[in-house]
Design a protein that fits this description.
Blueprint (H helix, E strand, L loop, with lengths): L18 E2 L4 E5 L6 H7 L15 H13 L3 E8 L2 E9 L16 E8 L9 H16 L4 E4 L6 H9 L3 E8 L2 E9 H11 L1
Parallel strand pairs: 5-6
Antiparallel strand pairs: 1-2, 2-3, 3-4, 4-5, 6-8, 7-8
Helix pairs in contact: 1-2
Amino acid sequence: MPTDAHTKHRRADAASAPYTDAEGFTFHLLRIPEDIPMLHRWFQPERASFWLMRDKTEAEIGQVYKRLMDSGHATAYLGCKGGHPAFLAECYDPAHDRIRAFYDVQPGDLGMHLFIGPSDVRIPGYTRTVFFALMRFMFEHLGAARIVVEPDANNTRIHAINRAAGFVYDRNVAFPEKIASLAFCTQRDFEQATTAIA
């Protein structure tokens, strides 16, 4: 695996360097075990099927995230709005992930997965707002040069949001549990795409 300093995972120190997005989203490191019961509730509905956690117990979810947080090359963050948890983000170094088998990892690449928690109020454009908040966090606070995603090829909703954020799709790749669509976005791509939206 590559060990170049530029590809090592960058973890935000939420305690000494808190980050609040322009939209008011604050990012915190996932707390284990305190946050696990909430994640277990979030992952139960049918809408969470793409996350592949619906069949896991609280204990199993806790184990998954403890391994992730202890890995040294991935970090889970909770995004909060108004003091209430709103979404879960996993940021990881592709050089230590299975996706490295499908493309040449570049210095500054950072992968991400996003799960938006349930809400009692439907807000038009909310998913896009959260997604863009995470992108800004990764570029501005984690120092990503390029963001890598590999969503399920059948998840048409996230593809529309990815493209709105400036992601350029490369190709589909086969994972054991899904066909994934590999896509990339630089900060310039993101700024150009979101400026055009604004």
